[in-house]
């Protein structure tokens, strides 16, 4: 006969069993808000038990990411311990004191020495605090269709080729069989978002953490070079590409362009291209210092509210330096990045990938997207005004000189945003000072156009 | 004589019908094309997705993509999670909204119209505005990382469904209520035994809208769920996307295969409820 007392025992035992299932290994729990796709998440989850066993840290993945989610979690006091930040967002969060200054947990840690210096400096903010560690890096290169080069009798580009060389090749690859002024095949395509790289290659002074928009003479020259690709009809009109709705890789794969400026490595390109292809470094500009783009803007940050900063730092180091899914990680100096990728994708061997990567390491020009147009507190207000101007520039309604002369107008909007920001409560002093300096600069007319 | 005068010539009818059907065909084509593309991509391999020109009918259909997407993600678990949330949300919405709509359409009380206006006014608030306060509230009562914030609000009514049902209930003659009252029925009995059975088309419409909204909801689960094992299908689908520039390929073919699978219940639900749905919209939504 089962009594009520027996039943209560059964219920209690079940509850204990259920609650014990939820318990995890003793030690601190670190939540990682992980921006990764399903395969990467699955791979990470397989590796986590080994990390937990060796470190005594319980690492929990929260794979659902998004800015809205992160902000909601922050205001509710549930910020994940580790999460991804881009440089714009990072500065905002650092200014509000929401991020841990990694110097407090990394002092004397040999892991810091393993990072490329550019990755390290990319994580610094205006108060010299270190708020993020880049978790990925890439350079820029020119992918080319070898069959098209062979058919046109054009030798493949070498590693020292220049912008002029590239344009000359693009002319030879451009074909307008029916002479209607609209080529069927263009020599090159370079997305407008890569103009900053051309500016940097042309020696433009890219000011990290700049809060206002400006255009130096070198930038103006770079824009002119870029526009000449379209004017000379060796690159398809940007509006035409938008209308076609094609991915850049499709342009190369379909034979509509012979060369394509894109990220190196670019996993989707590597996995999807069936043509015979090679990759060359971004062309140099004669007379300018040799510098190659190396991305390092986004990275992993630790919440200032984390319950266990040391454990969070250990977990972050494991993610970047050990988790197999991210290895070989290009942010680390002591890994054979090219070898690792060539063994993963044998089709990379002989494409020029190694040369492109090696050059970017030897002549690391950093990440010009730190340039104010894309990455600073005021980037949103700058882009709001600058983007329509750029669209007009690509459409030929204004010229580069007019664009440069409109910078004070763009900065008028920035001024308003900076003013509002400077009044914000809870802003850390170093960040407030930085805003005040920028405001003074605007007042003194430091944003006036360059001598053109 | 008069009849033949009124009757259109045969050729004119043919032309009119052809024109009408042709335009309907074109319009249908416009709506079907994205779905056809999605289905076609789901049968390609990754390079095939980017091939130019795009092959609408692939040389070799990759049916394996469907198996791959169900193995790459815990697809059936996500399906069960989504089904649970959707079933409870639909139940909650039907119960709460019909009851509130019944009150607004049948009961006479002071401030009824004002209250109804306030109820409708809540529709004006975009979800983004209430997101943070709601998150903080649910967080303070410990509901984050559970299904409760996704399900429980459905049991407290939704203004659009209340409006739709109220409009439909107004079309049901009040004489039925009076007859039931004479037989001794109270308001709840009238609601349950008279009004609800007569309002099947409107209920089907609300159920369908809620089903589609809840099944396809991405933002709610994204905000409130943290544990992978609680994920819904839309969150799972999002995990097929590339997250880092230059690496982590977006597997478009699998993404589309997943999208086709996720869409199927919506299509089935619509096919089953189509008759009621159209009637419900016509009688409920459009009547002032």
Summarize the structure.
The complex is a heterodimer of chains A (452) and B (288). Chain A has 452 residues and is α/β, with parallel strands linked by helices.
Any key phrases for this structure?
heterodimer, A: 452 residues, alpha/beta, five-stranded mixed beta sheet, four-stranded mixed beta sheet, 11% strand, globular, B: 288 residues, mainly alpha, MetI-like fold, 2 domains, 15 helices, 72% helix, flat
Can you walk me through this structure?
The complex is a heterodimer of chains A (452) and B (288). Chain A is α/β, with parallel strands linked by helices and 452 residues long. Chain A is built from 21 helices and 11 strands. Residues 14-24 of chain A have low confidence and may be disordered. The longest helix of chain A has 19 residues, at 4-22. A 5-stranded mixed sheet of chain A has the order 2-1-3-10-4. Chain A has a 4-stranded mixed sheet with strand order 6-7-5-8. In chain A, strand 1 (29-33), helix 2 and strand 2 (58-62) form a beta-alpha-beta unit. The radius of gyration of chain A is 26 Å and the shape is globular. The termini of chain A are far apart. Chain A has helices at residues 4-22, 38-55, 67-75, 87-95, 103-106, 111-114, 117-122, 146-152, 163-173, 195-201, 217-231, 238-244, 248-253, 267-272, 309-321, 337-344, 353-362, 379-395, 400-405, 407-422, 429-443; strands spanning 29-33, 58-62, 82-85, 133-134, 139-145, 186-190, 257-264, 277-281, 292-293, 299-302, 364-366. By secondary structure, chain B is mainly alpha-helical. Chain B folds into 2 domains: 2-62, no CATH class; 68-285, MetI-like fold (Orthogonal Bundle), CATH 1.10.3720.10. Helix content of chain B is 72%, strand content 0%. Chain B has helices at residues 2-6, 10-41, 46-50, 64-72, 75-106, 112-121, 127-140, 148-151, 159-170, 175-182, 187-198, 200-216, 219-224, 233-238, 252-285. The mean pLDDT of chain B is 88. Chains A and B meet through helix 2, helix 3, helix 13 and helix 14 of A and helix 3, helix 7, helix 13 and helix 14 of B.
